[in-house]
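Please go through the protein record below and see whether the fold suits the sequence. Record follows.
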Amino acid sequence: MKKFFVGVLLAASVVSTSCAAQAKDSKPDTYEMLNLFGEVFDRVKEDYVEEVTDEKLVESALNGMLSALDPHSSYLSNKDFEEMQVQTKGEFGGLGIEVTMENGLVKVVSPIDDTPAFNAGVHAGDYISHIDDVQIMGLSLSEAVEKMRGSVGSKIKLTILREGETEPLEKTIMRDVIKIQTAKTRVEGDDIGYIRLTSFSEQTAKKMREGIVEIEKKAGKNLKGYVLDMRNNPGGLLDQAIEVADTFLDQGEIVSTKGRHEQDSKRYNATSGDLTDGKIIVVLVNGGSASASEIVAGALQDHNRAVVMGTKSFGKGSVQTVIPLIGHGAMRLTTSRYYTPSGRSIQAEGIEPDIEVKQAKLEYEKPNKFMSNENGLAGHLSNDAKAKSKKNIIKFPIPDAKKDGEKAGEIDDFQLTRAIDLIRGAEIFGKMSSNR
């Protein structure tokens, strides 16, 4: 029993060479506290109302120790560690939500696009209070996540508390294999490049760059700028965030990290070359934009390379290092904070948009068939200009309601519409300024 616990400590010491040095400087009561742990361990083992395994007790103790530090540090069992490695490659099983723990409830950081949770209408900021009618209060985050896992095709019922709703919402969702296309691109109209990043996995930057090349081929000389949509993007790999930001920056710092130890403090700088050739960029963020997406938004904002639009981001400004524990899974440990190029820490603060635009529903006014203009009045004067000059007018097209599945004349994505308007408006202003 006690040998098992010592074995875990030895496994951890293999990973971190600093553990032995720290033991020499530890306080005299450290071993006394470890003895206390052993005593509690023995008492639970012998007297708990139900029989519990050594593995269960030790894993729970490790997870309790780490999760008590902050919401993002945790212990990963062998199974959890394997699943995490699969997730970073962009395909895994589950519901498709990024979650954290807040006030004893599971809080949705963001649903991932085109996943069961997203399609069921789970929103960023939702609180999950019950799973299959069993309350979450009293469970750890890892225990709650474990309850949400299950075989592909099985159903789960989530009870959701949502701001603005007077009654809890119940969502029945079927678990599925989550295949994430982390970078999607298209041309809006014929002049705006749209880039949607849903998370940051191993192929995100590469796929995004390929998409930008395709956008330039399709739009050609009409291309006015880009919308970089990172709403409800929960983050992911730090190196991918750096690569994405570097795509739009020609020089300067992208992000810096500062930790307790000197080796945890690093600076990451942009390399020469802007794939978009300096075109206007509007970055869309909201309360579901966290971690890596905040690194990108903060870097582009600080370098005045993009206009950040939407609502304040989540505010996760810490970096987690996954440390394998040989034969016993891994530990996810918060090792540093990250800072934007201007030195801002966004931890618990988030990225404030340059232009705040809350999501709303925009409805175009249909023209009144009874209203007229000068040309419709009887006896109106004719235009005596000998040659009519046609002005090149930029039109903001109304989306095809049948194609987009929307109600006629109504646009659901108000924030995206405003971003496109801003780019087109800036292009007009640029032409006016150059003609003065």
Remarks:
- The chain has a mean pLDDT of 85.
- The longest helix spans residues 414-434.
